[in-house]
Design a protein that fits this description.
This protein has 235 residues and is an alpha+beta fold. It has 3 domains: 10-37 and 152-185; 46-143, Umud Fragment, subunit A; 192-234, no CATH class. The chain has 5 helices and 6 strands, in the order αββββββαααα. It has helices at 4-41, 143-149, 154-185, 192-212, 219-234, and strands at residues 51-55, 70-74, 86-90, 100-108, 114-117, 134-141. The protein has a 6-stranded antiparallel β-sheet with strand order 1-2-6-3-4-5. Strand 4 and strand 5 (114-117) form a beta hairpin. Helix 1 (4-41) packs antiparallel against helix 3. The protein is rod-shaped and about 115 Å long. It starts with a helix and ends with a helix. Mean pLDDT is 77; it is low at 219-224.
């Protein structure tokens, strides 16, 4: 059986370990999200388990995609793409060479390349897109990243990455302390050996008390009997 002191030490250690784990995970997650947002804003794809997040920086895909939108792009085999799919690719157009562009497939050519066109553009892109240029296929809007991007103010960023995590950690700490105090109030069931020990200690204390009072068994009884004899003689 674990003693109360050891149990309390273990719970405190567990609480500290949990708090440290929360801080580490929160810091890593915040850093990773910040890294993704910076790379997306610079037009770089960060591959994470076959997916990446990209930021739309022009209005060429209006109204399907708006400037400032963040999108999820999934790595896809070129053979699985079809006309109408929206794809992200490294462009070879003169004005945006080397940058990631997200346009819709307008035609699949006989050589396996793709003719692409922005929904808001009047004409198709001049350069055809090869399979080796592909980043992936658009799957959905990343609304969470757009929401984060709306917090451009330093004070708002401070609230997201510092104040909110610290508040959550503080709440977790309060909950842990309350749990420890509650467990301390509940007495642990005693074993038979502990009960017998307490009884022996109580008996020993009583004997010691009686010894200090010079109590001798029988004296009080004799005094009572002699008192009765005197009453009978007087009567």
């Amino acid at each position: 059986m674990i003693s109360s002191d050891n149990k309390q030490k273990y719970l405190k250690w567990l609480s500290k370990a949990g708090n440290a784990a929360i801080i580490i995970v929160t810091a890593l997650l915040a850093g990773f999200i910040a890294y993704i947002m910076v790379c997306s804003a610079r037009g770089k794809a960060v591959d994470c388990f076959g997916r990446c997040v990209l930021k739309v920086v022009t209005g060429s895909m209006e109204p399907s995609l708006h400037t400032g939108d963040y999108i999820y792009v999934k790595k896809t085999d070129a053979a699985d793409l079809k006309v109408g799919d929206i794809i992200s690719f490294y462009s070879e157009e003169d004005d945006v060479r080397g940058k990631i562009v997200t346009h819709r497939i307008a035609e699949i050519n006989s050589d396996g390349t793709f003719t692409t066109k922005g929904d808001a553009n009047k004409t198709a892109d001049v350069k055809h897109v090869r399979a080796d240029q592909l980043v992936g296929k658009y799957t959905a809007k990343a609304r969470f990243f757009k929401w984060l991007n709306s917090f451009g103010d330093r004070r708002k960023l401070l609230m997201i990455f510092v104040i909110i995590p610290m508040t959550l950690i503080a709440l977790y700490e309060v909950k842990t302390i309350a749990k420890i105090k509650l467990e301390d109030r509940v007495p642990e069931p005693m074993s038979d050996e502990e009960k017998e020990k307490l009884i022996r200690e109580a008996i020993d204390r009583e004997k010691a008390r009686l010894a200090e009072e010079h109590y001798e068994p029988g004296i009080e009884v004799e005094a009572v009997e002699s008192g009765k004899d005197n009453e009978e003689e007087n009567g």
